[in-house]
Design a protein that fits this description.
This protein has about 260 residues and is an alpha/beta fold. About 50% of the residues lie in helices and about 15% in strands. Helix 8 (about 195-210) crosses helix 9.
């Protein structure tokens, strides 16, 4: 079965980051049938996020910016595997990559990437790649992805030494194998205690319908108001117990907030 992989390129140049992604693509193709597609963010029309919050509060269709966001979203949702590739700029992702994450912020509230595999590919000259890779990994987890440990590499300004080439090739080969095998695993990951607590806490607020109707409706449609987690998975007893406690506390807090708002003139 052919795996659909998309790489969202956050670089403004076709330099070191592209070379690493191309090596990664080559390793994937050596492992099996892969349909690989590049999305160059620099070539797409993506207006800067205004922070109005309409995509979160009312729904993504209410975003006032009319551009190529839906094209990016469609590419994300059609893929089996997703790569976010970026060089480190001033200790962070590039502005292009950050704007993409911001424009898709509604997925943090209404996750939908379950069953898909994600990996960040990050290059740096000197410093910062680990935190950038962790940022992208955490964002992807909150979107619902099953994540692989990222490809984070220091690329010298000058020509690579033979030992540096060997080190990079080895790292790319290992990460590509891990990424390729994930879609073959039918089991969705068991959530951590933190993830279970977040699910119950956020769900309680949405059950109370405190200010975010789009989230409330989405959770109801997905059946998450009565489920143990976002998807069917065996969760151990102590995680369920702690999650339920967090849910009760969150419901109490949501009720207090609603009562205070009801008293406002």
């Amino acid at each position: 079965m052919t795996k659909k992989v998309v790489a969202f390129m956050g670089s403004y140049r076709k330099g070191s980051t592209l070379k690493i992604v191309e090596r990664f693509e080559s390793e994937l193709r050596a492992l099996g049938e892969v349909e690989f597609k590049y999305f160059w963010l620099k070539d797409l029309h993506m207006k800067p996020c205004r922070g109005c919050g309409l995509c979160i509060s009312k729904g993504e269709e209410f975003c006032p910016l009319k551009d190529d966001r839906d094209q990016i979203y469609a590419g994300l949702m059609e893929a089996d595997g997703v790569i976010l590739a970026t060089p480190v700029y001033s200790l962070q992702v590039t502005a292009l990559m950050k704007n993409m994450v911001d424009r898709l912020a509604f997925i943090f509230h209404r996750p939908r990437c379950f069953g898909k595999t994600f990996i960040p590919i990050v290059t740096q000259g000197v410093y910062g790649m680990e935190k950038v890779a962790l940022y992208l990994d955490e964002a992807a987890r909150l979107w619902g992805f099953r994540t692989c440990t990222g490809v984070a590499l220091t690329i010298p300004w000058d020509k690579l030494l033979p030992e540096e080439e060997e080190q990079i090739d080895g790292a790319v080969k290992r990460k590509a194998a891990d990424f390729f095998m994930q879609p073959h695993n039918p089991l969705l990951p068991v959530p951590s205690l933190k993830e279970v607590m977040m699910f119950h806490g956020v769900r309680s607020f949405h059950m109370a319908n405190v200010g975010l109707p789009a989230d409330h409706d989405y959770y109801m449609q997905q059946g998450w108001f009565t489920s143990d987690y976002f998807y069917p998975v065996k969760i151990c007893w102590y995680k369920k117990l702690i999650g339920s406690w967090v849910g009760r506390k969150s419901r109490q807090q949501a009720q207090k907030i609603q009562q205070a708002r009801d008293l406002l003139p």
